[in-house]
Amino acid sequence: MAENFKRSPNPTLGVEWEIGVIDPETRDLVPRAANLIDLVNARHPDIHFEREFLQNTVELVTGIHTSVPTAVAELSTHVAALREGADELGVRLWGSGSHPFSDFRKQPVSAKMTYAEIINRTQYWGQQMLIWGVHVHVGISHEDRVWPIINALMTKYPHLLALSASSPGWDGIDTGYASNRTMLYQQLPTAGMPYQFGSWAEWEQFQIDQATSGVTNHTGSMHFDIRPASKWGTIEVRVSDATSNLRELSALVALTHCLVVHYDRMIDRGETLPTLQPWHLAENKWRAARYGMEALVVTSRDTEERWVTQELDELVDTLLPLARELDCATELELVREFSQRGAGYARQRRLHDLRGDWKPVVDATCDEMTQLLPER
């Protein structure tokens, strides 16, 4: 069976942002997402929210955009409406890769048959998916470009993860990781790094094999860190932890948008896109999950290494002309702020070390939703 990729003539943009619902007294997660969505949608029926795997999660979903500023502006409207409803319900909004002390055994799954099937199949690991991420969709003009671009994007996996890493705490302890979410999520049988497919035909055969062997029967799809989204004609980048705020989200989306278009333009020019050996990709993923912005990453097939902060600074310089064309230079420049302010995991860890408690961390992270605002 051929998989119909709905081609996008332009590099359009869409963003999905998963947010948790917090009890302001206990600082724990609460299963009030459905109540919150119903309340907000009654007043703002045009806003698109999704119920997620857990009853404590709301997913904000944008429409199709041509630029980062317009996508972020839509999300700003969504957050404002959501905060209004949260205030009325007496809950707070939490953006992070995972919660530092909530007990996954006490967080109910949404009432959907496929979710129950996932839990039944994956058992202990599936029950632990108390995690949130950001998904960025970028339109691609033809399916033959999809896997060359995905394979090139994988060379920048640690860059995207280091910026967004925001899940150091789990089950009341500091895991020592910048993104414990990354380590948890890859335990699922349909999740993890994509294989380096050489063509669209290989991807189609893989899909047939997975369906025939029953791997995807319970989920309907593979949940690779970067994957084709054929229904929308996009590449979906799912590497990142959820950010706590729109300012950092805008930088992350700008970097993602620019990278995809950059590699697409390389194909136009007949240039060879970068790739790394699978073992280097796996090591880079682990290093970014472990060390975040302090990661030393493999940058070439000859096993050269550089600090991810150096890489990011030069990447911004390289992509700025394209970012100006795509109207996201302002947002891309915000990538430089991460080195000064520290990524989400570093801020959480500093406060936890200072106070010896995760509850002030939850408060401060919730506060960032209103404190770290977009540049425009």
Polypeptide structure, described:
By secondary structure, the chain is of the alpha+beta class. The chain has one domain (13-371): Creatine Kinase, Chain A, domain 2 (2-Layer Sandwich). It has 14 helices and 13 strands. Strands 1, 2, 3, 4, 5, 10 and 11 form a seven-stranded antiparallel sheet that branches. Helix 4 packs across helix 8, helix 5 (157-164) packs parallel to helix 9 and helix 13 (344-355) packs across helix 14. The radius of gyration is 20 Å and the shape is globular. InterPro entries: GCL_type2/YbdK_subfam (IPR050141), GCS2 (IPR006336), Gln_synth/guanido_kin_cat_dom (IPR014746), YbdK (IPR011793). It catalyses: L-cysteine + L-glutamate + ATP = gamma-L-glutamyl-L-cysteine + ADP + phosphate + H(+). It is an enzyme of class 6 (ligase).
What descriptors fit this protein?
about 375 residues, 13 strands, Creatine Kinase, Chain A, domain 2, alpha+beta, single chain, Putative glutamate--cysteine ligase 2, 7-stranded antiparallel β-sheet
